[in-house]
Amino acid sequence: MDNSAKHLLQRLVRRIPVSMLKSTLDKWERLTAEKRKSLDFTQSKWIITQELVALYITENPNQGMWHTFQLVEPEDDAHSVELMQFKELFKSHLRELQRNVSVKIKKHTDQAVWIRVAWGDGLSSPNHLKATYVVLYLQTPYVFVNALSSKHKPLLLQALTLSTRHQQIKAANLSGQKLTALRDLLMRQYQQVKLRVEKVQAEASANRHRMARETFGDGMLPALQSAVFKLETKFKGPTNEAMTQRDEPFICSVKFSSSNLLESLRHCASSGIASTPVTPMLSSIPLKGRNYFVITDNVLTA
Amino acid sequence: HSGVVKRRSKSQSYRRSIRTCFGVASGLGLTPALTARRMNTSRKAPRSQNITEKVKPEHLELLVKTEWQLSYVTPLYQFRHTQLKSYSRQLSAFIAAEKQEGLAVEVGGLQNTFKVSFSVLQGLAETSDDPETVLIQVQSKPMFARQEDPPKTVWCGWLSCINGNPEYLQSLPKDFTCLPLFCSKGAEDLSSLVKSWLQRTFDCCFGPLDINQTTLQWLAALWTNCHMETNIQNLKMIWTLPVLPPLQVTYTVDSDDVLDLWRSTRESSAEKSREAEDEVCIDFSEVTRFMQGLMSHFYRHFRVDLSAGELNQVSSALGSAKVNGKIKISSSRYLISIFSLLTECALLKMPI
């Protein structure tokens, strides 16, 4: 919706008496019944106008110019960010960067999260007719942005990065008028990547299960409850030069205990907590029928 | 440079400290609207302090070598250190009344009388903002006991604030006394009664103080650091791995070797400026590197990733700490340091 259309709408809403506003919009038929129900006619006309514009834009997203951004370097918990958390984080981060903003976030039925940011500055209140629209899908790294001024760009991008638990965001070099086209293009690509990743993971999992069973056995396992390893080996740590250069052994002991140790270890192997193939240290327990070991540098490979 | 957004926030290290300190277990959100109360990312190494001059020997004996259950409590409204005798009488009466109501008290039979005594445990308050520690003891005497039979202490608890954040303490309205750390030992039902009375009398709130992963890691590093002054004998860590059935891994490292590892992780960051020798500061990143070193050595042998599990317990000759909020201090020399750390944890739980 361009500016002149917005202003026209604003003037029309102002002219039409409140009592007739609802029925007029019903007759207009440009908004779905559901959307019309969501309008609160007890609010001021100014607010109603803004909401109408917002509704119109979300119903007709293939307008204006959408720019795509990609979130990179996810933190460990980026994949588990869910809507409530994202909403809180985004709003608080953005408000920290710029006090006078109005943020509305809503999830649509197709999982798209629509954000409308109205920017105010100094003394003027946030202007929803000139709002920035952001669309993102929480489990993907893509963000689509419309009507973002260069002044507000760094603020919005920073808030998005932090609230989705990533370290950086970069321009994805994909822009266009049709949001749906941009989205479909990227989602399809993303789906393919996801499917490939899932396939690789499934194969790895099958391998792990097989190796776990080969090492520890199938079915019920004897209920061994503990195993002790006395380690008298030199320190092994990839990044610690001082310690790896040490001649003396790093004396420590490790005790594994469980109500059924072999089942626990088998589950470690099949779930990936223990890397496969299983180390001889652990496979020695079932293979040699022992649960007390003294490990020195000479015996490490045994 | 592909248009990467540089962080503008002026307190960048503040954000990083939140991230490193608030592990998954913490459940605290990343709302930047918090006050400056957050876990310190750097702290002074605990020094051996001889507190035998400051604290009465019978109090010290009470505090050390005992496993305490930790809770946090919000500031107490209109609590007066001068009214302790009155509080003793009131709480005794409350316990007696609850017993009459039929509330079963585990300890002893219904014939037992309970006597409560509130007293000041002097010598633990470190700064001028710390209120004095309050000790509560519940003694029980069977009804038909002989005169000369001494009453038995069946429950003991204390409220303290050691090296509490001065900004927070000073921000409290005048009528509030902040003693956020509550340590208790004894029958659970007596604990409930005492907390219940305190809650209704001083309009406060109790909650469990779990010792989270970050704090346990701090303790592992701090206790190892103490080996320079006091023999810790060994550093023992217990992890649980999320498999079926659950697998417990007890990893015990010889004290001299673990100290060497700790020293080596500190040396690699030796370039950072240090104040005078006595003010050695430890940064949480060193603690992380230390833990990673320990887990690496473990991984090289067993090819098991300990970080997939949860650290449940850390202990040494100086004490032990468990994730379910149980702490034991075995040496009075480090009591102040450890309880300062725990006070900090308790203050983080304050809802304001």
From TrEMBL, chain A:
Keywords: Centromere, Chromosome, Nucleus. Belongs to the CENP-N/CHL4 family. One of its GO terms (biological process) is chromosome segregation. InterPro entries: CENP-NAC/CAD_complex, Chl4/mis15/CENP-N. Signal peptide: none annotated. It comes from Xiphophorus couchianus. Its main location: nucleus. This is Centromere protein N. The keyword Cell wall biogenesis/degradation does not apply. It is found in: Chromosome, Centromere; Nucleus. GO terms for cellular component: chromosome, centromeric region; nucleoplasm.
Automatic annotation (TrEMBL), chain B:
It is found in: Chromosome, Centromere; Nucleus. It holds the Pfam family CENP-L. One of its GO terms (cellular component) is chromosome, centromeric region. The keyword Nucleus applies. Keywords: Centromere, Chromosome, Nucleus. InterPro entries: CENP-L. It comes from the Eukaryota. PANTHER family: CENTROMERE PROTEIN L (PTHR31740:SF2). Belongs to the CENP-L/IML3 family. This is Centromere protein L. It comes from Xiphophorus couchianus.
